[in-house]
User: Fold this.
Amino acid sequence: MKATIPFIRERFEQFNAQMFGGQLPQLPIRLSHARTFVGMCTFKRRRLLGGGMENYDFKLQISTQIDLSECELEDTIIHEMIHYYIGVHQWRDTSAHGRLFRQMMN
Assistant:
């Protein structure tokens, strides 16, 4: 199954309600022709006046070059939504797939 924007948006809304309590704001979703990743949640970081850091400008990208089953595509969307959830809450993890990420996966 090739990813489409409507499918990703529909599943994003469904999983946001079911798994994240509707806490995730909508974000730009883009399809990619990359063969180096299936999904990617990206954001920028900026330093605040008080010295802290802030995550902003979130984007979700899903590759159309990798043929996945519907279940695999849904798992990819959930995986990227966990990255998004951690980023939106400004939490720091030990690594990209660190302790916090793995706890949320389970």
Remarks:
- The CA atoms of residues 11 and 59 lie 16 Å apart.
